[in-house]
Amino acid sequence: MTLSKGTKASMWIGALTFSLFAFMLYFRAYVYAGMYIEPDAPYGISDIIEFLLGCIFLLLMAVSVILAIVLFIKGSVQSKKSGVLLLVFCVVLFFAYSPLHNMAARLGG
Questions:
Q1: Smallest Cα–Cα separation from 68: which of 2, 5, 6?
Q2: How many Cα atoms sit within 13 Å of 39 on the Cβ side?
Q3: By three-state DSSP, how is residue 2 classified?
Q4: Which regions span the lipid bilayer (predicted)?
Q5: Residues 13, 67: contact at Cβ < 8 Å?
Q6: 65: which residues sit within 8 A by CB, 6+ positions away?
Q7: 17 touches 85 (CB < 8 A)
Q8: What is the Cα–Cα distance from 103 to 28, expressed in whole angstroms?
């Protein structure tokens, strides 16, 4: 079976988004607590890094949703299916992030 360009693009952006998602959870669980926070400071470098990772994640999610909509409108049948799956994947990641982030924070101490 030959994959269409739209399907390949949705697989790549989905894999990239999931990789960043997994790295964000890893960072929160294992790296965040070990980074230095200046005494009496409201936030540290780890908070800034986490904020930037979150911004990049939201940007990737927006690109994924736009790609999914474009594939659903203009793609072949295979691309339309992958666009719908990418959209569902993004929704699942978006709603799973908060509980998993809290669980990673408890894991990291």
A1: 6
A2: 0
A3: coil
A4: 12-31, 51-72, 84-100
A5: yes
A6: 87, 90
A7: no
A8: 9
Task: Return the amino acid letter for 35.
Answer: M
Instruction: Provide the terminal-to-terminal Cα distance of the chain, rounded to the nearest Å.
Output: 47
Can you say whether the dihedral through the CA atoms of 67, 72, 73, 78 is positive or negative? positive
Q: Under 8 Å CB-to-CB from 34, ≥6 apart: which residues?
A: none
The number of CA neighbours under 13 Å toward the Cβ of 21 is 21
* pTM of structure: 0.89
68, 90 in Cβ contact below 8 A? Answer: yes
Per-residue burial over 26-35, b = 16 or more CB atoms within 10 Å of its CB, e = otherwise: ebbbeebeee
15-57: pLDDT as tens digits: 999 999 999 999 999 998 888 878 887 888 889 999 999 999 9
DSSP characters over 36-90: ---TT-S--HHHHHHHHHHHHHHHHHHHHHHHHHHHHHHS-HHHHHHHHHHHHHH
